[in-house]
Specification:
The protein contains one helix and 17 strands. It is mainly beta.
Length: 236
């Protein structure tokens, strides 16, 4: 088993994995760089990882990241002041992907002005924590979304569902702010109707001209829980 194929290892509420960063973070995904308690919002611009086989006396060769030629590129944060990061000082980078918070420790290798990017050391491992209290089941069906403080209804599609939350796709230009309270109405594939389910928007991203919105339910609905359990049983 290579370094990139090792399964995640649980460490408390967090998990660690030695899989390549690119498996979890794509070019254009938002990042948060934290240094000395201050956060800088930026974006993933690219990454390069090179591996080298190292021989250990009396043991089998193993793959290790080649530090001199492995790196991550991130856009220059808007609130970055020239020289505010110390070279080789420890930084923490966090990002969100599919309901999980990922984090890794790195150092600043270089600052480029043209194009304006930060060059960060490639991490040996990435930690992640699953924010969702329930695993979601992928499915697609229509949903009516009403923002409690906004006018009218928006039609979208449920993309996955759990007893505690959902991910919804909306047309571009119909995005809703994080923290907004919503009322969701839909008919489950088994025919059960759910009306005015109260939810709170947790995250929003844009992909392929659509808004993807993660929302957590603020009320318990037995029909949703029962349907999700039925789906999970079928997938086992």
């Amino acid at each position: 088993m290579s370094a990139s194929d090792k399964p995640p290892v649980e460490t408390g509420i967090f998990f660690t994995t030695s899989s390549p960063l690119e498996k979890f973070c794509d070019v254009g995904d938002p990042l948060i760089v934290e240094w000395k308690g201050k956060r800088y919002r930026t974006m993933m611009r690219g990454a390069k990882m090179e591996m080298v086989a190292t021989n250990l006396t009396g043991q089998k060769p193993r793959l290790a990241i080649l530090r001199d030629t492995s790196f991550i590129l991130a856009d220059m944060p808007k609130n970055y002041a020239n020289g505010c990061f110390e070279f080789n000082s420890p930084l923490t980078v966090r990002f969100l992907n599919s309901g999980k918070v990922y984090a890794f420790r790195t150092t600043l290798m270089r600052v480029h002005n043209q194009p304006p990017v930060l060059v960060l050391e490639y991490p040996e491992k990435v930690e992640f924590h699953n924010m969702r209290s329930d695993e979601r089941v992928g499915m697609v069906f229509p949903v009516r979304v009403t923002e409690n403080s906004g006018p009218g209804n928006k039609m979208g599609a449920v993309l996955d569902l759990s007893p505690s939350g959902t991910r919804i796709g909306l047309d571009a230009g119909e995005g809703i702010n994080v923290g907004a309270k919503l009322s969701l109405s839909f008919t489950l594939p088994n025919g059960a109707a759910v009306n005015d389910l109260v939810a709170s928007v947790r995250n929003i991203s844009e992909e392929g001209g659509k808004y993807l919105m993660g929302a957590s339910f603020l009320t318990y609905v037995p029909s949703v829980t029962g349907f999700c359990r039925e789906c999970s049983d079928c997938l086992e």
